[in-house]
Design goal:
The structure holds 2 protein chains of 2 kinds. Chain A is mainly alpha-helical. Chain A is 72% helix and 0% strand. Chain A has one domain (3-313). In chain A, helix 2 (16-37) crosses helix 11. The chains are: A mainly alpha, B alpha/beta.
Chain lengths: 314, 144
């Protein structure tokens, strides 16, 4: 693979430009479905794009008490991570043989970086509300990463121990067995927390912390943060579908129908996320941690791993 | 056409400033932001941080305590942005006209882009005012 090709993959397809378009689309679906749930009309189709362009044109205010470099650098870190994660996941779906051993682990790490960048940015802003939000975000990461990784072990076991996304995407779907279904449910709950949506949005809690770690951000950095979050809203469902319920985008030779079904799965997952977010109250941070570390999430994840091991041992 | 201002008119996020209102305008303003009126159709969102704001909706005639704070909020908001004086007090001091504690209506403290009179203005009036303002900003822009 030449450097130019890799650059094309990351910048145009399936990296930044492609993910950008779908992030805008998914952000619109999110707002539109939310509006419909609340019995309203909702924003026009281009609304996320208007927001993005507007924020790019606004003045950038850097708080006097903060760390200037880190404050401005943190959002870029998150954006870069989610771009590369999207590239790797889509590459594994479109060209299943092109990945490298261990790219699953790389993607899991990359998907953690946006949250880390939020923490960095929040603390760098020097705002009290932002650091409260950032510390909550940190507790959130500690709580959801364990069940998320436990859940991700199930498809690995299902794929006979392969940690290549391409291999996992080509084996029989993990959700065809009860272990996979349990792990999938756990992963969806963790995804909700990873996306920072209600009921796990204690970190940015609009009504108590204004917007938590983002409180001091304005203009272009805020645009990048919002873009990163929308891109996560796109990449996370794609990633989960890839490892648990493969067939996001079947290889080109498979034809149009499987690809269409694959995109339907992603949209289905997105709608589940949106409905969860619209029908739940916010959990306090201690409740959220107890929830993730308790029997209903981590316990079920362990159970799923054991079931998967038993199934593959027989 | 100025893309910056056009995008601003398409997605004005508002920040609510109470500079000594009797709470009546605040209730009507919050009412205007409920799903019933669905201002998200125009891209309007209520934000909690002044750094995210594109419009300051000021309610209440400005008290002496609130005046320096309003001035600071005005300076802290990322440019470009709009100031909306909502309610009779914000426009003219209203019934508090001769009050000893008044520093003046909003436009004596910071420049105002639109006045929405009423005691309190109905949500329909607030939305109408904001939409008129957005149209006006878009049009002057097209000519200039």
């Amino acid at each position: 693979m030449s450097a130019l090709w890799v650059l094309f993959l990351i910048v145009v397809f399936p990296g930044f430009a492609f993910t950008f378009l779908f992030a805008m689309f998914f952000a619109w679906i999110d707002r539109k479905v939310t509006a419909r749930v609340q019995w309203r009309v909702g924003p026009p189709f281009l609304q996320p794009l208007y927001d993005f362009v507007k924020l790019l044109g606004k003045e950038i205010v850097v708080p006097a008490g903060g760390s200037r470099v880190l404050f401005l650098f943190a959002p870029l870190l998150g954006l870069a991570a989610v771009t590369v994660a999207s590239t790797l996941v889509w590459q594994a779906n479109i060209w299943p043989r092109s990945g490298f051993a261990g790219d699953l682990i790389v993607v899991i790490y990359l998907l953690t970086i946006p949250s880390l960048s939020v923490i960095l940015g929040g603390f760098a802003s020097g705002n009290r509300v932002a650091s409260l939000g950032a510390s909550r975000e940190m507790k959130m990461i500690l709580s959801y990463e364990l069940p998320f990784i436990l859940a991700a072990i199930v498809p690995i076991i299902n794929a006979r121990g392969s940690i290549r996304l391409g291999d996992i995407a080509q084996t029989q779907p993990a959700v065809s067995h009860i272990s996979g279904i349990l792990a999938f449910i756990v992963a969806v709950i963790c995804m909700q927390a990873k996306l920072g949506l209600v009921p796990f949005d204690a970190a940015e809690a609009d009504t108590e912390l204004m917007s938590g770690p983002f409180v001091e951000y304005s203009g272009a950095p805020l645009a990048i943060i919002r873009l990163t979050r929308s891109m996560m809203l796109f990449v996370m469902p794609v990633f989960l579908v890839t490892i648990f319920w493969p067939g996001v985008a079947a290889p080109p030779q498979a034809g149009l129908l499987p690809a269409l079904l694959g995109s339907l799965k992603i949209v289905l997952l997105l709608v589940v996320v949106i409905l969860l977010r619209n029908t739940n109250p916010r959990l306090r941070i201690d409740q959220a941690v107890a929830f993730f570390w308790g029997p209903w999430v981590s316990g079920v994840a362990v159970l799923a791993v054991v079931l998967a091991l038993l199934r593959n041992a027989v | 056409m100025n893309l910056k201002l056009k995008a601003l008119c398409k997605s004005p996020w508002v920040f609510h400033v109470n500079t000594g209102a009797c709470n009546n305008c605040d209730i009507e303003l919050v009412d205007a932001l409920t799903p019933r009126f669905d201002v998200e159709r125009f891209g309007i969102l209520l934000v909690g941080s002044i750094r995210h704001a594109d419009g300051l909706v000021v309610t209440g005639g400005v008290t002496r305590q609130a005046a320096p704070r309003l001035r600071r909020l005005y300076e802290q908001t990322p440019k470009p942005f709009l100031v909306i004086a909502c309610g009779t007090c914000a426009c003219t001091k209203g019934i508090f006209h001769d009050g000893y504690h008044m520093a003046g209506p909003v436009d004596e403290i910071v420049p105002v882009d639109i006045y929405i009179p009423g005691c309190p203005p109905k949500p329909e009036a607030i939305i109408d005012g904001v939409v008129k303002l957005l149209r006006k900003v878009g049009q002057t822009n097209r000519e200039g």
